[in-house]
Design brief:
- There is one protein chain.
- The chain is mainly α.
- About 60% of the residues lie in helices and about 0% in strands.
- The chain is globular, with a radius of gyration of 19 Å.
Length: about 300
């Protein structure tokens, strides 16, 4: 079956393509100083999660590929493979970026569904921005990294594990939104009976299967795990980039500050996570997202200073 010509023409209108990436040099002009500051506080994983989520939310998938190139080489501007990091190191970077991209699907665009009254909620979606960015990331990976990444899904819910996923979702929901978690759940349930706890409905299931960190006992824990603090960094990056969802952004900034980097559900606490969840670190997160957005959105009228 072929598209009718008038329909095919209509699909070329209204900006159907993803945003183009700025030059590699311009991207590196932001990558270098922000990564340097993150490294000073041992928060390199937080920087990579933030950068991935910001570029994905800004719908610049080719820049996600450039980001992998940047972190996988000793000399980022070189096109040669001579400066590649080890397969193990590159696989770890790719796994973290891939996991951040999947989790970003919870936030990109869909918070608008909740409206201003649902002033603490995120959204749930497997969005086209996530798909495009994952495609660009996969295209940038070397063959040895592709074969080293996890190939089997650990998120497929079934009768034997659904309660485990639901409990993870409820635990994360409470940890992020407390002391307003019950009030918010009731408010969302009043909007639609399938929205939240009744069932349990899809938000809690998605928080459990997608957004919640893998517990240390899970075999997936060491494969690009985005922990509790980094999850709030990711949510803040997506919502700040998305724009127009101020109440939801505020709630996830509170979620970041509340995470304190003290570990969640048995996670080991790290120095980087403690800094990211501090007032100074949270300010850095927001400023870094703004700096990346200013580069990829060349027509932006507002420039942020680091």
């Amino acid at each position: 079956m072929k598209l009718p010509l008038p329909v095919k023409h209509l699909l070329t209108l209204r900006n159907p393509q993803a945003n183009r990436s700025p030059s590699i040099e311009r991207l590196h002009g932001v990558f270098a100083p922000t990564l340097q500051e993150a490294t000073r506080h041992k928060a390199q994983d937080g920087w990579l999660v933030l950068a991935t989520s910001t570029l994905l939310s800004a719908n610049v998938p080719s820049a996600v590929g450039h980001l992998y190139h940047y972190v996988s080489r000793r000399t980022p501007l070189s096109s040669s493979d001579a400066g590649l990091l080890t397969t193990e190191a590159r696989t770890a970077q790719a796994a973290l970026m891939r996991e951040a991209a999947v989790k970003s699907a919870i936030f990109v665009g869909v918070p608008r569904v909740c409206g201003d009254d649902a002033d603490l909620a995120g959204g749930v979606s497997v969005g086209p921005k996530t798909i495009l960015s994952l495609e660009a990331l996969t295209g940038a990976l070397e063959d040895d990294v592709k074969t080293s990444l996890r190939q089997v899904s650990h998120r497929e819910a079934n009768a034997t594990n659904i309660e485990k996923f639901v409990q993870r979702g409820r635990d994360l929901w409470k940890d992020i939104y407390s002391p307003h978690d019950v009030k918010l759940a009731n408010k969302l349930a009043s909007y639609h009976p399938d929205f939240i706890f009744r069932g349990p409905a899809f938000i809690i299931q998605s928080y459990g299967t997608v957004l919640s960190p893998w517990p240390p006992s899970d075999p997936t824990h060491g494969s690009g795990n985005v922990n509790r603090t980094l999850t709030s960094v990711l949510g803040t990056a997506c919502l700040r980039t998305e724009g127009g969802v101020g109440p939801q952004l505020t709630s996830h900034v509170f979620g970041l500050l509340k995470s304190h980097g003290d570990g969640y559900a048995g996670e080991p606490a790290t120095e980087g996570d403690r800094w990211l969840s501090s007032a100074e670190g949270t300010e850095w997160v927001i400023n870094t997202v703004d700096a990346l957005c200013d580069v990829v959105r060349l027509d932006s009228g507002s420039k942020s200073k680091l």
